[in-house]
Design a protein that fits this description.
This protein is of the alpha/beta class. It contains nine helices and five strands; from the N terminus they run E-H-H-E-H-E-H-H-E-H-E-H-H-H. Pfam families: Lipase_GDSL_2.
């Protein structure tokens, strides 16, 4: 995927993308990997005059994102969309002690497909999908795998069906965590990246594009 002059890059998803951004300021990039990516690209390629936007909202599930997709994505008409969503769907089930059903999984796939289909129909955006992820620290996060793994498989299916870029964050972060310690990348909850975690996500994103 090539980044062109005057491109608008949109990062959208949940708290992993949000990272404390000021939602009253549409240009605020938060304090996570979107800011790291923008800092790299805008400092290295000033002549490209890139616009980078963050529309992550902490706590969002896929259905929450679907409700705001028109205003926070389609109307913007971005050139590159990076989407990371899904872990909160798993998290809510775990908090509620609810097992993932086939019906819920079908709905997850349908909602995800809606996002990509509408993006394809309404824009010329190139798309980068990121896998939702969880690391096994604390130990109870191991119990999330049965739910989250099925959602990850849907994200991979969507990347194949819509011929998007795919960044396998679940594998990348878990491999790094095995090497360096899981909490080094996601602190004490297995989900929210530390500075090192955001750095790994940003570097993985940059490797997926042709600057």
């Amino acid at each position: 995927m090539k980044i062109n002059k005057n491109d608008t890059l949109l990062f959208i998803g949940d708290s992993i993308t949000d990272v404390g951004r000021d939602r009253m300021d549409g240009k605020d990039l938060g304090k996570g990997f979107p800011l790291m990516v923008a800092s790299h690209l805008q400092s290295r390629y000033p002549a490209k005059r890139l616009t980078v936007l963050n529309r992550g909202i902490g706590g969002d599930s896929l259905k929450d994102l679907k409700r705001r997709w028109e205003d926070d994505c389609l109307i913007i008409n971005p050139d590159i969309v990076t989407l990371l969503i899904g872990v909160n769907d798993t998290w809510r089930n775990q908090n509620d002690g609810v097992e993932l059903t086939d019906e819920e999984l079908d709905e997850f796939e349908s909602d995800y497909r809606f996002l990509l289909k509408s993006l394809h129909q309404r824009t010329d955006a190139r798309v980068i999908l990121m896998e939702p992820f969880v690391l096994p620290y604390p130990k109870d996060r191991v119990g999330w795998r049965n739910d989250l793994d099925k959602r990850i498989q849907i994200v991979r299916k969507m990347a194949r069906d819509y011929q998007t870029e795919l960044i396998p964050l679940d594998g990348l972060l878990n491999a790094a965590g095995i090497r360096d310690g899981f909490s080094y990348y996601t602190g004490d909850d297995g989900v929210h990246p530390t500075v090192a975690g955001h750095g790994l996500i940003a570097s993985s994103w940059l490797k997926s594009v042709d600057e």
